[in-house]
Each structure stands twice: as C-alpha cells, then as structure tokens.
Description:
39% of the residues lie in helices and 17% in strands. The strands form four sheets. Strands 6-5-4-7-10-15-16 form a seven-stranded mixed sheet, with helices on both faces.
Amino acid sequence: MSAPQESYIRWENDRLILLDQTRLPQEKHFLALDSVEGVFEAIQKLRVRGAPAIGVAAAYGLVIGVREAPEASFDAFYNHLLKQKEFLAASRPTAVNLFWALDRLERKALSLRERPVREIKQALLQEARAIQDEDRAMTEAIGRHGLSLLQDGMGVLTHCNTGKLATAGIGTAVAPIYLAKAQGMKIRVFADETRPLLQGARLTAWELMDAGIDVTLITDSMAAVVMRRGWVDLVIVGADRIARNGDVANKIGTYGLALLAKAHGIPFYVAAPSSTIDLETATGDEIVIEERDPDEVRTCYGCRIAPAGVSVYNPAFDVTPHELVAGIITEKGMIRPPYSKTLPHLLER
Length: 349
C-alpha cells in the first residue's frame, strides 16, 4: 500500500517550485525560481534541504542555467554548462546527491554532443524530470525495505528531517513510518529538535503532525533519557554521504545518537538512496564537512542567545563510524556489515 504523496518540489511553467522550508512552521510559502542564482541561494540557505531534494533542485537549476547557453556549437554550449555546474556545486560541499545529479546531466549532454544544442537542452529537462520521478519511486522502495523493521506500537527516534520535505517522495528515514501508518500500524515517533537550525522541530514535527502521525518533539539533549525510559525501540536517520567502509555523514548530532543507541542496546539504522553512497571516499575521515555561519548558533530566529563575538564551532554534519550502524536501508534493499564488501556489491545490482 502506498502512502499519500504531496510534493514540495516540482517543475511548473518552466520554473522550479519549492516550498521555502525556512518559513516553516509559521508559513507555507512556495518559491518560483527561474534563475540559477535563485536555485543556488535556495540550496545554500536551506530553503530546500535533504540530500535527495537537493539533487532534484540542482538538476533543475542546471536546466535553468543553460537556458541562455549559446547554441551555435556544442563546445560553446558545453563550456557554459560547465560554468553553471561549477557554480551550483559550490552551494553545499557535503551532500553527494548534489554532485551526482549535476554529473548525471553533464553525462547526458556529452552523450548527445552530435545533436542540435536545442535538443540537448530539452533532453536535460527530461533527465531532471527522470531524476525526480526516480526519487519518488526510490522513497517508496526504501519505505518497503524499512517497513520490515517496524511493529505495531514501536517507538522510533529520528534526527533532522528525512520525510517528504527532504525528497521528491515520502522520504528516507521516515518513509517506513508513512507506510506503516498506511497499513494501520501505530508508531510513536520521537523527533530531535536538531540544533542549531531546528529541522526536527520546524520540519519533522510539522510534517508528521500534518500527516496524522503520533510525534513527540524532544530537545537533542533529551534523547538519552527517552532511551533509558524504554520508549525507543529503533533509531532511523538519513545520510548526506556514505563512505565505502560504511561511515555515514549526516546532520550534526547523529554521531551522538549512535553512541547513545549503542549504550542502550537500541539498533541504529541509516536510510538513504544508493546515490548517497560514495565509493570514491574510502572512509568518513575523507568527507569534507561544511562549517556554517556562526550566527546560526549565536542567534535563534533573529534573537541573540549568546554573547556577541563569542567563538563558535558550527559544523553542519558529523560522521558516524560504520561500527555503530546496524544496517543501511536503500531502495535496493537492506545492507549489513561488512560494508566495505556489501556496499560495492549493492551498486553493481
């Protein structure tokens, strides 16, 4: 049984339509983007976020970026495409889906280099749409594979936002929860607020309540107590990049959750599309971690909550060692250790 879907990212009237997640939960406001600069800003400022959704947005952003590319020759068009691709790639350095989507459109263009440039531009739009359609199907598949982990009455803890707001479909880590609800299961979700940008509080809590799912919001520092009380049977999080050995880069705070889960004997799972797996990155030590504006920590909704000028360390992600990950749920199935062997095998399917 499929879960109801409402897309928060779509292509309409030659523009990219995005729900501006920075305005949630106060306002449900959609952006209509028709410039590559607008797409860059939306990705960088987290108006669209979540690895799969970033990939979809980047693909459409490149389509917009090559609209005015010269059509006299393929080489002139391709040089323009590379500049737009490089520009968009600088918006978020950690999310591998961003680069995966841009690389896919570049390969599509190269495969059609003998065709008229006008046809290539149209083909790139079709490729971006294919990425979006595949993402929808991928989230359903992740949900089906993850559903086997759930039983009626379970408590599931999640971090950041990994639902419909983060993908073109029903999400990654919460996709099994949507399908469980569609089958009549009652699952109680504990959503970490996810400091400093509060994606769990602003987005996950809003999204799950909107879907009629039982969700309890907790601060990040409450996770240990909730686990100790026996309210959590399972932890499922998403991923922005997965190294060849199974190390997982995800929203800051994920590593701490994995340690807490291990201390309390709770299985810790990661749900992500296979496109998030980066076999070129051997271990998590090689993953570039984005550091963001210190004022994201010093302030909250425009109000200063720390001394002006105080030093701040603000990494957007952390890396969870593969030893702490019980399994990785992908659209191709559940992957178990040893990841250095099972992840490459997965991508060969």
